Amino acid sequence: MMNTAELLKRESFIELGARERARSLLDPGSFRELIGPFDRLTSPWLAAQGVVTQADDGVVVARGRIAGQPAVVLAIEGAYQGGSMGEVGGAKIAGALELAAENNRRGIPTRAVILFETGGVRLQEANLGLAAIAEIHAAIADLRRYQPVIGIVAGTVGCFGGMSIAAGLCSYLIVTREARLGLNGPQVIEQEAGIEEYDSRDRPFIWSITGGEQRFASKLVDAYLEDDVGAMRASVHEFIRMGAPARHRSDREADFLACMERVDAAEQARPETVRAIYQKGL
Q: Which domains are seen in the chain, by residue range?
């Protein structure tokens, strides 16, 4: 437990916007934004539906260096449209990852960090958003053959939908206590299964199932950190130093399916039960 002096020294990562989060992870003075807000690359679909657009479509692409090595940081702004992925924002992420992979093939060892604050596909862009997310999946799988792709889910939106699959494809995944990670969001589950199964207003229950601490205890993520910029930066440096894992989590489908077979779907899921199943099986 931190004392008051230690708490006052901490710099919150969660309270930063996407652009500031990206800048905080890159070496000082190396931040350079690509396709930034002054390029005015907005979604062509939102305005037609009466939705206010944002000049960067809610995605920040930053090139620079981490620990002196070439890197790209892709940060999703959760405050804009819930961090949802549309055609433009998705293309920015996929394109940057594809260029990083091409750099590696040309002998430039470029790493990637993805900051997930997203509810998944943008409903107003439907299939276009889904196609963009699929391109992100393919680009992560390509790049991680050369360099680690590090994902971060800090808070407060969390990471859901198709982008949770993108998080699962990352070489390493970092979370905080405030983070949430799941394929379907609480309201979607409640709508489909009923409030008796999943009460989206029961915040302690939601975090006990999909929160960062639970995901770490269940071995579904690789690091569980305090909300602190310095701790986040140090963890990213450590995973970059480690290089790509010998076996990615997404290559262990047989292990996860074996865990799922031990789940009794007739009973209400309990955090301690979920932990025990995954800790034993993984």
A: 4-181+221-250 (3.90.226.10)
